[in-house]
Specification:
By secondary structure, the chain is an alpha/beta fold. The chain contains 13 helices and 16 strands. The radius of gyration is 26 Å and the shape is globular.
Length: 383
């Protein structure tokens, strides 16, 4: 037989009952919330508020003709710049322009190899002292690089222990380009390690790990892929076009997955360091549209989906990303921010631009290309 409660015990019990009920209700709400989120991919760290995260996927030798054949072309969404060009149709000069916002004649990397090109010229000219990752790192961004850097990295001009300024996370390819796509050595923050299999499949897990490591800190990630640079599918050079297209499959998956996981306050830029031609012989480095026109797509908050036919250049990427991050380049740049175009606006815009490499300087307008060759010839092509 139970002992009767006193009046004081009864009063205390009545006070505890509403509190217990409230606790149970809160626990039920938490369970419902957890069940609702079960199976969803986690949002990108730091993507809900504050300064945006920024991802750049930079392919190598991806021309517009091949780009339009890829499934990603029709599924990526975002804003497609149909008149996007590089100002120097070669890997190192173009990458240097992307990192600085400068024409090649101003940053001094005019070729892929010494004395006027590659990492050798970048180091000699002090180019790495003021680049996009340096600006962003100083502004509080966590910065990451993965892939192919300037020619000469890892051996001739700087060993794999060298990590260029501005990068918090560095996964730089050490193996030379002729090694192809398989079993490639990388510098992981200055220490050499190899990745088995096709390097293209490793970018996604590395990117995910970097994004998680940022926590609440905004991040900038540059993925400089090997694809679709020759050799295509083997060690023979150059291979065949079908194998060339196949090198892009891991990159298509990479971009699709990143867009699906990158969170509501993240921008993704997809482009190439230059174009490419297959006829009469495979190659690049000419001032013609085959080698200078590149894909450029931007996905992110406030970006108006559709196409844009303004001239958009590789020298515009650094000032565009700087503006999105809320900073100004500390040094003058030649490019202009594309942010108004991303919003669907149509401001006064450039009507021509310069294309340059050792051997020529050219001017491209909407309807003509004028080439001044180093031997004194002048070539004018209507477009």
């Amino acid at each position: 037989m139970s002992t009767p409660r006193s009046a004081a015990e009864t009063t205390a019990l009545r006070r505890r009952v509403p509190v217990a009920a409230a606790v149970v209700a809160v626990l039920l709400l938490l369970v419902v919330a957890l069940l609702a989120d079960f199976g969803r991919p986690p949002a990108a760290p730091g993507s809900a508020t504050g300064r945006p995260n920024i991802i750049v996927v930079l392919t190598d030798d991806l021309d517009v003709e091949l780009w339009q054949q890829l499934a990603l072309h029709d599924t990526i969404g975002g804003r497609h710049f149909t008149e996007a060009f590089v100002t120097s149709p070669l890997c190192c000069p173009s990458k240097a322009s992307i990192l600085t916002g400068l024409y090649a004649h101003n940053h001094g990397v005019m070729a892929n190899n010494p004395p006027q090109g590659g990492l050798y010229a970048a180091l000699r000219n002090g180019l790495e002292d003021s680049t996009l990752p340096v600006w962003l790192q100083q502004a509080g961004y966590r910065t990451g690089f993965m892939g192919r850097y300037l020619v000469g990295y890892g051996s001739r001009d700087a060993g794999p222990s060298y990590v260029p300024p501005g990068w918090d996370r560095w996964v730089g390819r050490v193996s030379p380009t002729p090694a192809g796509y398989r079993d490639i050595e990388f510098s992981f923050d200055g220490k050499v390690g190899s990745l088995a299999g096709n390097e293209g499949w490793h970018y996604l897990p590395e990117a995910r790990a970097f994004m998680r490591s940022a926590g609440a800190q905004p991040y900038f990630l540059l993925l400089a892929t090997m694809a679709p640079h020759a050799p295509w599918g083997g060690r023979g050079y150059p291979g065949d076009p079908a194998r060339r297209a196949a090198t892009m499959r891991p990159i298509e998956l990479l971009v699709t997955e990143l867009i699906g996981e990158m969170g509501p306050n993240t921008y993704l830029f997809f482009t190439s360091d230059n174009g490419y031609h297959l006829e009469p012989e495979p190659g690049k480095s000419t001032p013609y549209d085959s080698d200078t026109r590149v894909p450029l797509v931007v996905v992110g908050p406030g970006v108006t989906a559709g196409t844009d036919d303004h001239f958009a250049l590789n020298i515009d990427l650094a000032p565009t990303i700087a503006e999105l991050a809320g900073i100004e380049p500390p040094d003058p740049v030649d490019g202009v921010s594309l942010v108004p175009l991303l919003r669907g606006e149509s401001p006064p815009w450039r009507e021509e631009f310069t294309i340059e490499l050792l051997g020529f300087t050219a001017v491209r307008t909407q309807d003509a290309l004028e080439i001044h060759w180093a031997d004194g010839r002048v070539e004018r092509q209507p477009l």
